[in-house]
Amino acid sequence: MEKLRTPDARFAALPDFGYPPQYAEIDDLDGGTLRIAWVEDGPADSDPILMLHGEPSWSFLYRKMMPILAAAGHRVICPDLVGFGRSDKPASREDHSYARHVEWIRTLAFDVLELRNVTLVCQDWGGLIGLRLAAEQPDRFGRIVVANTGLPTGDVPMPEVWWRFREAIQGAPELNVGWFVQSGCRTPLSDEVRAAYDAPFPDDAHCAGPRAMPSLIPTAPDDPAAPANRAAWAALCASPTPMLVAFSDGDPITGAMAPIFIREMRGARGREHPVIGGAGHFLQEDAGEEFARQIVAFLRSV
Q1: Is 281 a catalytic residue?
Q2: Which of 5, 60, 175, 215 has the greatest number of beta carbons closer than 10 A?
């Protein structure tokens, strides 16, 4: 597996994101290793909050939330998915698979960091990966927060807006990640913030991850990832692990999933679930502070 690494200089001027990166070498599942990155905040001896980003962002997405959660006494851990952020970037789209992404994050969270009693916070692909882990290793998780995400099995059609996104991100001659993030926000991003989202991708050779991810989502019942996702959905529906459903009020891609989580998940029943107002798909950008406050209140309640 050929891997690329974004030069450190690309991350030299990130607004409001001064956390020093940490790194680990993990198995690339192809006979070699790759470097995966994460940032942390908060007391190291506190129960961890594992915050997983999605497509095509990176841990920078959580910069507004990390200080609030850390100030409330929580250890906050924000990895960069392989192919994103400061993590190594497999150069071929074929190097990326749903199963590999689940295993790469599992290795970091449980083999490297040895996390237990985890609060999972997941959005977009962070949910597709994190919810699989929560279902497959439930003893590691104490709470789950789902936000603008899902766990597709291919049994229900994806919305038309998602198909347009998939076509755009796979077919663009040059991938402008900052523009894609802006298109998923209701509030305008500054030039500095858009540049921060572009930073991990100095050229198109580094973009195999963002270009590959849409094709890894199960869109038909016979997709290779569909059986594992069905099993995970069934396990989560039966799980007593407390769940907070905190979707935004303006996400055309995943918005329809919020009432399904609330209705189907045992851990979500009997709880007030917030709707994060004035926010689009990337609610961490549009309303990160409010989202973080809702998580703090949830953790206090359970």
Answers
A1: yes
A2: 60
Query: What pLDDT shows up at residue 209?
Result: 97
Task: Provide the 8-state DSSP code for 255.
Answer: T
Cβ contacts of 285 within 8 Å, gap of 6 or more = 61, 64, 181, 185, 187, 189, 193, 279
Dihedral sign, Cα of residue 79, residue 81, residue 84, residue 86: positive
Residue of 74, 223, 281, 286 marked catalytic:
281
Q: Which of 124, 198, 223, 286 is catalytic?
A: 124
Identify the band that residue 170 occupies on the pLDDT scale cut at 50, 70 and 90: confident
**Whole-angstrom Cα distance, residue 53 to residue 299?**
20
3-state secondary structure of 109: helix
How do beta strands 33-41 and 22-27 pair? Answer: antiparallel
Active site residue 223: no
Note if the pTM is more than 0.90. Answer: yes
47 tagged catalytic: no
Burial 121-142 (b: 16+ CB within 10 A, else e): bbbbbbbbbbbbbbbeebebbb
Among candidate residues 297, 286, 301, 299, the one with its CA nearest the CA of residue 248: 286
Give the C-alpha separation, 280 to 251, whole Å: 5
Computed over its alpha carbons, how large is the radius of gyration of the chain? 18
Reading across the β-sheet that carries 141-147, which strands appear in turn?
22-27, 33-41, 75-79, 48-52, 118-123, 141-147, 243-245
CB 14 within 8 A of CB 60: yes
Which of 80, 95, 251, 286 is an active site residue? 251
Look at residue 246 and tell me whether its pLDDT is greater than 90: yes
Q: Which helix (H) or strand (E) covers residue 24, if one does? A: strand 22-27
